């Protein structure tokens, strides 16, 4: 497994970088880039039918339909896959992500996918009406989910794929034929910028709230009682709630020691249809088809110092550039200099610069930037920008006994390892059992030889 590392100590800053292959996931989701929106856990396929993917190596039959995820803090999400050739892993952790951090960012047909989501199941839950529009006799939930997923795959992956059930196939054709580009939906909740900096004794910010929720709850820094840092409005008045477009500030006492703090805002709302969800464990990328009232959250941090370089650090994936953008804003009175992957960067006082760290597809990254006075920002994740899997073994799996009548229901069938669930578990278990059997056989053979030699 390839590993790159770079570290330097310049103007009180150390930047350490570790890059690993796709086989190793990020070490800690909790220390990844600033949270924005909903986070959830994959449950698996819930409503689905069968589809056939036509490729150079022949036809593969896969499960196609709706996934369900449980939102951290409460709520449920329904999603479709936009990453056909990678498997979905049960219990994988997902976070709401901008299209630019996924394969959708460079996909000119991403807007067509959103149209499909808005005009098909489950957003359109009147299946009789949907069937009439599609020109089919009738649709079951399984047909509707399979047809919708097939139409999405044609745009997300450019795949030659058909639904097995004739009714589902007609729906897929109707959706593909009528899709019209739609804009990317806004995040359910985000803070901009994700990092600010400045000198103590004033207001650091503003940090602007962007949300579709009516109000958000403002959660102050965990050590506010000790540090004296408050979250306020522009007039310096403490706030506990905010609305879309609201501006928040970190009020740092005059005598505060150099340091940093984090602000969290939380709300309950529905996540907009078409939002992307990605996982650092290389579980396939999802796109939102439906949301219950769900808990969403966002964070931002502030750094302050009396003198020298005062950096505000943030990061985000950029699939168009094939890497991770690290933005460093220096509100201090000295240059902010650091090194990443053998390249040195300098941000003059009073300026901001974004540095793109190039990565290979499917590569895990782990950036930790630390400095004086306890400054430490860590960014972890996996660059997953292409819909096609690049790892051997991360390919679509076949159905052993294709039968539209047997496909559907509440769980993932043992033969539906397709894009659907935690099929790797069965493979791992089988391999483990095989190794145990082989090991036992080797021991038996060695003991026989030992007995023959001593006999």
UniProtKB/TrEMBL annotation:
All copies of domain Bacterial phospholipase C C-terminal, residue ranges: 311-381
Domain called Thioester: residue spans: 79-179
Residue spans crossing the bilayer: 424-446
Example GO BP: lipid catabolic process
GO MF annotations, alphabetized: phospholipase C activity
Pfam families assigned to the protein according to its UniProt record, in alphabetical order: PLipase_C_C (PF05506), TED (PF08341)
Protein name (database record): Cys-Gln thioester bond-forming surface protein
Species per Swiss-Prot/TrEMBL record: Streptomyces sp. R39
Lineage: Bacteria, Bacillati, Actinomycetota, Actinomycetes, Kitasatosporales
